[in-house]
Amino acid sequence: MLNKAANSKPAINRLVIIGLGLIGSSLAVAARELGLAGTVVGISRRSSTLELALERGIIDQACDSLKAIANDLDAGDMVVIGVPTLTVPAMLIECHELLSDCVTITDVASVKGSVVTAATNIYGRMPGQFVPGHPIAGSERSGVTAADSKLFEHHKVILTPTETTEFKHLEAVANLWIGVGAKVASMPVEEHDEILAATSHLPHFLAYSLVDTLASMEDKREIFRYAAGGFRDFTRIAASDPVMWRDIALANRASILSTLDSAMDNFKALRGAIDSGDEQYLMDVFTRARDARIHFGKLLENKSRQGSMTEKVINYQISPGGHARGVVRVPGDKSISHRSIMLGSLAIGMTEVTGFLEGEDSLATLQAFRDMGVTIEGPDEGRVVIHGVGLYGLKAPTKPLYMGNSGTSIRLLSGLLAGQAFDCELTGDASLSGRPMGRVAKPLALMGAKIETAEGGTPPLKIKGSQTLMPFHYEMPIASAQVKSCVLLAGLYVEGKTSVSEPAPTRDHTERMLNGFGYEVDVDNGIATLSGGGELRATRIDVPADISSAAFFMVAAAITPDSDITLLHVGVNPTRIGVINILRQMGAKISLSNKREIGGEPVADIRIEYAELKGIAIPEDQVPLAIDEFPVLFIAAACAEGVTTLTGAEELRVKESDRIQSMADGLNALGIDAQPTADGIRIVGGQLGSGRIVSHHDHRIAMAFSIAGLRAAGDIIVEDCNNVATSFPHFIAAAESVGLNINVEIVE
Ligand code: S3P
Q1: In this structure, are 138 and 212 located in the same domain?
Q2: Is residue 522 a contact partner of residue 512, using CB atoms and an 8 Å limit?
Q3: Confidence bin at 681 (pLDDT 50/70/90)
């Protein structure tokens, strides 16, 4: 908010900086270079520092004390206290004695609680003109010779205003930091000190302590000679200014002691594990830490690429004239990726998964199992290794499990969690929080589970542990693989049989994969049955490419003259090939080759060449087999000759968006006659025009309209495509590789 409120040009008359250390002198030189203040005044007790600062053009004017300039300062002037933390109170006393209350005062100390307490004591209350601040920037170098005008660019500055801080002073300080390229955030004083104790203060003390330990060893010269990259990386910050860090240690005592205590507990446990040879403990800690560090590295990478930690909205812009030719391997199957993590976690032993989809949805599942204590290595280029804990080895998560955008995660997990001995809560993003969960809550309750939804049957789901689940037969009222899988997974915890019958065949990855893990599931006449209490044995899983992602390129080739695309290693499970059946019926030229079975799932290469399409009445029995592919099939229908109708597909209204409405609106915006009905749509083929499309945060809507760009008369802009990453992380690269003219627009 501050970043927005304060983008007018800063108007500081005199900027007075007390203390020309790294931060003070860098701020001075940046403000001077960028013309953010009329005059930049530096105050230091040392004349040599002042001379150097003048000589190097860091300041305009030098003073040896605040007193020397205080009488000239008035509204529009600002004093920045840039001295070590424990010296700030002495400077505040001078400010109190010498400055009028119109002058803005701020500081840059790394601890805020001690500074705010000092100001309150000195002034009798927190003065409205004082804005406590802390730039999260710096280096192990110190002093005026280290001044760097770019030091604050893309770094955060935390301001900790209190109730009495006056807005005009807050705004002036925020503008100064924004002016030097920083991102301004604000938070309560206590929160700042706790966060900094953990993220900055603790690492410094660990580095000081490690170097000191090594330096006091007898043969230290030898040790340092052999100390390599790890030592250098870990200890860089031990070269920091000792006065500054002594002050921080004393000023933020309480928060630092509590983080040190937890670090010491961890150290002790690590020592114990090494002593007793506890391999599992060591693997758990190292894997968790490594993955957290990789995640953090990605955040940083993102930050330097985009200049900000805040996620930006992206639009796709597709221009006409593209083509659809080439050989593509799309990412791994989402449904199978989810299940590989779930069953791998519940198995005994180590499951290796290759081809895992590194999309946000399957990563949400992966994270949930890590949160329940499962050690999972990766993903590393699609390879994941899961150290299974057995059916009864999951641990209670310490916080609600966040499922993001993923319906499959929440619905399948609800079944599996209904059988655990602990309570837990499942939450999701805005889209998931509006989706129906009664369809899983109801059968689970009939089995004896205690499960609560929010009003309206939506997430969050609260599941009570330690319930006895009863043998159960469920006749599913809707054809849903998620509901079937949910009930079967709960059935693993039932003493006796659980069976599910479906009104129409739905994807059977759960049944196939359970068999792959050595757990018998009997499927007969549309009824899947298993007995609880067995054991899953770890296995290897090779996840085929996702036919739901391949579908975008199948339609791309089907609608674009002179096209020829081959999609490699695609899962062609009979419960998933509705898109092939429907496109073929519309006249598409599709051939399958290299058919094989991998880990219990049929796989093939799919070739599709351009052929004129005609409109059809889509057979209702194909609906569950193509349930995720309809958005892009509607694009095929818009490019076909004649009318295409879909019925019996009301499910589409409760996917990541209401896909019937989202697609009808988008097609209408492009000039196509598309009439939504309660359970489907009627589309009259025609010429796609240009226009802006609202994706409703739905990945498949965004990708479908990107493909439409191949046949549109002008540019198509698809708004808000961030969620494409839930199922197809490198969609843009794949689309470009076959010849789409597609660009990413970052929305400020
Ligand atoms: C899925 C089942 C389908 C599908 C979803 C994934 C699965 O949902 O739409 O993308 O992995 O089981 P329904 O079971 O709700 O039809």
Answers
A1: no
A2: no
A3: very high
Distance (angstroms) between ligand 1 centre and the Cα of 482 equals 5
% of residues, the chain, pLDDT over 90? 84
Query: What's the pLDDT at 7?
Result: 45
Q: Report residue 5's pLDDT band, with 50, 70 and 90 as the boundaries.
A: very low
**Does 100 fall in a domain?**
yes
Domain that includes residue 524, residue range: 337-539
- Is there a domain that residue 477 lies in? yes
Whether 720 is catalytic: no
Kindly state whether residue 406 falls inside one of the protein's structural domains: yes
Residue keyed to tokens 């000679």: 225
Confidence of residue 682 (pLDDT cuts 50, 70, 90): very high
CATH number at residue 510: 3.65.10.10
Give 138 or 429, the one with higher predicted confidence. 429
Nearest ligand 1 atom, CA 628? 9
Alpha-carbon span 672 to 685, nearest angstrom: 7
Alpha carbon nearest to ligand 1 atom 13, residue = 480
Alpha-carbon distances of 514 from 135, 261, 530, 535, 538, rounded to whole Å: 53, 44, 10, 10, 11
- Give yes or no for a contact between 539 and 517, defined as CB atoms under 8 angstroms apart: yes
How many Å lie between the centroid of ligand 1 and the Cα of residue 569?
Answer: 21
The predicted-structure confidence for 381-410, as pLDDT tens digits, reads as follows 899 999 999 999 999 998 899 999 999 999
The closest alpha carbon to 554, from 222, 328, 352, 367, belongs to 328
pLDDT of residue 576: 98
Instruction: Looking at the structure, tell me whether residues 522 and 615 fall in a common domain.
Output: no
Looking at the fold, whether 116 and 50 belong to one and the same domain comes out as yes
Secondary structure letter of residue 139 according to DSSP: -
The torsion region of residue 307 among left (phi > 0), alpha (psi -120 to 50) and beta comes to left
CB 160 within 8 A of CB 194: no
> Which atom of ligand 1 lies nearest, measured to the CA of 655?
9
Tokens of 393: 């080895």
Q: Are residues 62 and 152 in the same domain?
A: yes
Q: Which residues pair with 472 in a beta bridge?
A: 498
pLDDT at position 220 is 60
pLDDT value at residue 284: 85
Does any domain span residue 289? no
Q: Is the same domain home to 520 and 613?
A: no
